[in-house]
Design goal:
By secondary structure, the chain is of the alpha+beta class. The protein is built from 10 helices and 7 strands. The chain has a 7-stranded mixed sheet with strand order 2-1-3-7-6-5-4, with helices on both faces. The two termini are 39 Å apart.
Length: 371
């Protein structure tokens, strides 16, 4: 056995309540300080993918630098520019070329931002997180994505080039005369938002499976680490809560907007995304209620087991009390006038009383239904 795991100071530190909030995972979830600007590391690799299309034609290109996407500012067709990996110089160059407000540049390069949507005269900017479930760490991971809707152009900035949820969008763009190919850029913006929101349900499904497993552990009551599992799941639900609620406001901003970049016929599509995010919030609340109930059930089970142990100990104490009293009387160190104290059969009388009285007490306890 590893003696390092038995060190008492490893656990005694948690008797001080603030130490419960100093674990690494908790810091990752709760580390939000708008007065301190976190440092973002420059991406080692930047991948620029351009989809320039109309109903009949599609041009799909991978570029080695962001300057290669500049000619698509006024291509006469709808263009999706997806940039994987963030470098300050590249972001500034792209936004400057496409006439994006400087404040948007700061938001794109920021970290731990709250999902939001901002409007300008010539563009609409929205920022939110793509969520993934890490099966190895059993944790929800998030990646910040920024989407800019301009005239016939959608620009998306992602942090990680290894993964995203947009493969179904790319497949739709490769289908000639598809609805996405026939519509304007604001429908493409809707599809990107819809893919991100739909992936939330995949993450929640995996969390739901873990919740069911923990629920079985609580019901069986044979896992001493179940409370740690419940606490970890509640932390992951905090991540969902912090990401879901602002997205509802973000999508609602599209519904309220009268920007010329948004066509009225596409309002119903954004309404569909709004319905999905509301459903996701409700499902996350249900998961949270289930976790609270499981934690209460676990604590009640622990208290019940403790009560059972205390009841057994109380019964044993009661059964030993007559023997203790009788032994004390017979063991007094002075002489008495009680005759059978000095008789040969006195010992057997004392032992018999020590056995008969506890048996009678057991019968009485059983009859009263105490155990």
């Amino acid at each position: 056995m590893n003696m390092e795991s038995l060190r008492p100071d490893k656990y005694l530190k948690y008797l001080y309540l603030p130490n419960l909030f100093t674990t690494k995972r908790t810091k990752e979830i709760l580390s939000v300080n708008p007065t301190v600007e976190p440092l973002r590391e420059e991406a080692k690799e930047v991948i620029v993918t351009v989809y320039d299309y109309d109903a009949e034609h599609l041009e799909e290109r991978k570029l080695s630098s962001v300057e290669g996407c500049f000619p698509y500012k006024q291509s006469g067709r709808t263009t999706w520019i997806n940039i994987d990996g963030l470098r300050k110089a590249d972001v500034e160059a792209v936004c400057t070329h496409f006439d994006i407000h400087p404040l948007v540049i700061e938001d794109i390069l920021s970290m731990n931002q709250r999902p939001k949507m901002d409007e300008a005269d010539n563009s609409i900017f929205c920022l939110l997180n793509m969520l993934y479930y890490n099966n190895e760490k059993n944790a929800v991971e998030q990646e910040q994505i920024s989407i800019i809707l301009a005239k016939d152009v959608v620009i998306s900035f992602q942090e990680d080039a290894r993964r995203d949820v947009f493969n179904p969008v790319r497949e739709k763009l490769r289908v000639a005369n598809s609805k996405l190919r026939q519509r304007t850029a604001d429908l493409l913006c809707y599809v990107l938002l819809d893919m991100i929101v739909d992936n939330y349900f995949i993450v929640m499904e995996k969390l739901g499976n873990r919740i069911e497993d923990v629920e079985e552990e609580v019901t069986r009551g044979n896992n001493p680490h179940v409370l740690a599992h419940i606490t970890q799941l509640r932390k992951e639900l905090i991540v969902l809560k912090r990401n879901f609620t602002p997205v509802r406001e973000l999508v609602n901003g599209f519904l309220r907007s009268d920007n010329e970049l948004l066509e009225d016929r596409h309002t119903k599509y954004y309404k569909d995304v709004y319905d999905h995010i509301v459903q996701a919030i409700d499902l996350a609340e249900n998961h949270r209620d289930v976790m609270v109930s499981m934690q209460d059930l676990h604590i009640n089970n622990v208290n019940l087991k403790m009560n059972e142990v205390m009841k057994v100990m109380a019964i044993v104490t009661c059964l030993l009390a007559p023997a203790t009293v009788i032994g004390g009387i017979f063991g007094m160190n002075f002489d008495t006038n009680v005759n059978f104290f000095h008789q040969q059969w006195g010992f057997y009388v004392a032992v018999s009383l020590m056995l008969i009285i506890p048996v009678g007490m057991l019968w009485m306890f059983r009859r009263r239904g105490w155990f």
